[in-house]
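Quick one, probably user error.
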């Protein structure tokens, strides 16, 4: 029984660990808030890597909504990858993380700007009851990749 409790306790501790966490910066000795740095690879465009910084408050019921994102091309981006993504104006959620026990989450959404041949990655927080205005944006141009297509400009 004791061994089962130890395994269960270890499993609970490991569930709190983020497998994509690459950095953890303390905001001071007298605070429970840390800046967590995570690396994310776009699941449909593995040639794009994003780094996200967000605040985690260890003893609070909700984390602050602040976040920052930076995305770069770190590998090949092909026409087939671009063909597979959602090209609607609201794009597609590529990452979601709970930030509270009260229906608050941080999301990263990929939106494709066909006119400029650019992938946009928007990091933002949602609060199902009141929303949130805090966000951060990073862009990855397709220029120089196999996926780049000369934009069709409308004639006037």
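Nope, works fine. Designed sequence:
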């Amino acid at each position: 029984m004791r061994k089962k409790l130890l395994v269960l306790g270890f499993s609970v501790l490991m569930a709190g660990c983020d497998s994509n966490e690459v950095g953890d910066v303390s905001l001071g000795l007298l605070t429970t808030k840390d800046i967590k740095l995570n690396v994310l690879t776009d699941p449909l465009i593995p040639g794009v890597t994003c780094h996200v910084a967000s605040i985690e408050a260890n003893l609070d019921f909700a984390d602050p909504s602040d976040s920052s994102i930076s995305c770069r091309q770190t590998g090949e981006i092909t026409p087939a990858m671009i063909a597979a993504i959602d090209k609607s104006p609201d794009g597609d959620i590529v990452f979601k993380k709970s930030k509270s026990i009260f229906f608050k989450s941080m999301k990263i959404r990929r939106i494709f700007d066909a006119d400029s041949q650019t992938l946009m990655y928007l990091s933002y927080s949602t609060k199902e009851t009141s929303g949130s205005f805090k966000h951060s944006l990073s862009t990855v141009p397709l220029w120089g990749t196999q996926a780049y297509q000369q934009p069709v400009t409308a004639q006037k």
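DSSP finds two helices and eight strands in the chain.
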